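Quick one, T. Sequence first:
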Amino acid sequence: MKLLYTLLLGAAAAISANASVPVVEQPKTSGNPTSFAIVVDEATYKATLPSIERYRDAVERDGLATYVIHSDWASPDEVRQAIINLGEKQPSLEGFVLVGDVPVAMVRNAQHNTSAFKMDEDGFPWIESSVPTDRFYDVPQMQFRFLKQDEEHPHLFYYELTEESPQWVVPKWYSARIRYPKELGGDAHKSIAAFLDKAAAAKDAMKKDQLDHVVAFNGHGYNSDCLIAWMDEEKAYREYFPKAFEKATGFKHWNFRMDPKMKYKLFEELQRPEIDIFMFHEHGGPTTQYINGSGESTSETTRLENIRKTLYRTIKRTMAKKGTPKEEIIASLCEEYGLTPEFFSDFDNPEYWRKDSIEATEINIASEELHNRITNPRMVMFNACYNGSFHEDDYIAGDYLFNNGNTVVTQGNTRNVLQDRWTLEMLGMLSHGMRVGQYNRMVATLEGHLQGDPTVRFAPLEANTLAADITLRKNDVAYWRSLLNSPYADVQSLAMRMIADNDYDGKFSPELLNIYRTSPFNTVRMEAVKLLRRYNNADFLEAVRLGVNDPYELVARLTADYAGNIGDKSLLPAMLESYINGSERQRVHRSLGSSFILFDLDDVVAAVNDYYAGPGANRYNAAQEKADMMEWIEAMRERVVETNNAIVDKDKKERSRIMQIRTVRNNPYHPYLDNYFAVIADNNNPESVRVNMAEALGWFVNSIRRGDIIDFCQKTMNQPNVPEKVRAELQQTINRLK
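Structure tokens:
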């Protein structure tokens, strides 16, 4: 291990040796309270200098002293160090933008900092199983170990998060990328210069532009297509964007169901010059936005065609990915679904695939359609997988920037992203003059990034100094306490966050619980619960118990997940009340079902018996409902027992055991923790099994047995003959759970 580390350090040093010394240009004006940096590669700097200067001057006029740092960057380490050096000299540094061909860090061993990405790093190519992330640059306290540079894609550099590092993403600064998608064609430097000129012009144009025109769209398959979840988000939008609700076209809340070819209506909205923010809540890929899906099956004919379409595409994918002969796949599908070979008679028909291609074109938005299209919303959010893949030669979030429209900043993800997360957290601060970068810093994940200008801001609803205060007065608890009574929900939430960030002795916890109990604002209650999760105490437990029946669907949905992560059986009665009485909230119902299986299922059975002996006794058809519930629990028990038996079964193949262990990451089975401890402690288990099991313990962050896990890890680390890789993983787990 020491030899490998020495070799890696040598490789990193060799890269650094080829680098030039960064040039740091000082701001042109004085007197601005906070600062910003433009970090650019030398070739882009020389080719776009007049535009860089116009952009810098515009940012300075908007209140940020702006540095320009340029160099022939040889590695991410060099860029990172230049930013850290500036931050040490300028403690008022708010953030930075990376312009042009600035190296990309591909981070490994840090998937717990993503919302959903859980790809096997050993089983898949590095370029697929690593996370492209600029958290490498804006979280200086995290420590990374250099691994290698990608040979085919030299702008990509692989690192892994070290075991000793802080394990959570808490950015010190905000950041964004201005990286031109090569597939757009043309001259990249001219296009970057044009964007910088557009961003500079926007600064003056937006000085009086309040956030009063908003469009939100939910695509096919998002949040299980739950209409309750979709409708309930308007509660947040009303709290966040009050100006947008003052006229009929100020806020539009769209859903894919409104038109079978919704993309064309979206294109119309994207060209409205007055739109401030456009939010896509959808599924996606690097170059695709999934909008409509195949539509609802309203007759036997449409159902049959949707089945045919699904199976035909399955055959194509399987042939492409696995090389399986077509005939073999068809025979398997016939046997599985009771079909005849005639059902697949159109598979080789070019006309069938021509129609299929036309349909796919009409229900999705592809990058090619954006290459010559104007987009006008100042900010576009892509709450979707992969739309923000800035390391690729083409990516959706970049396509929205480099056109003649008004869009100057986008938000997207480089990897897949969890649907059941608070996608709108802190977004309302944009109504109060906060810069988009400042907002994004407060909701950062490993995969979530800004593209374009992070200094963008709208005119505030009322004059305030919050944009500077969040940097200059971040430790002024008395000031933030004075904002707890703000009439605006988002200002209250910001104040709560800033107080919690300074609450080193944990005294704010009871007050947060009281805020949750009493606040009329849905988003404030959600923020209170999320902050209480940090404390991981009895106040958090009580907020979760109340939260699963909260009137705001998102609070109920996320606390349903938190309940499973905690595993305290005292939560079961409240969970059952929500599960049985609120099944129309599909996503909450789903989350509760996933959480029940993480408890001791005997406790769940007892809670079900208590419910139907008490509050559920008079429900319509209570006996059958209870029987169905018990049948479901027993089916889940079989699955849970099978998974956990496989984990401890030494007769099973090593790879098979590891696959089952990996499921524990998303399913922290609290009753089986002693089994997991035994797997790690047993020297007769393969090292890889022990390492993966130790890593899985790091996902029990809110478990009622969190203290037991930390104690076990500390004791095991001190045992003789523990392999170095196991010891390192135990150390990382401890740091994650602290």
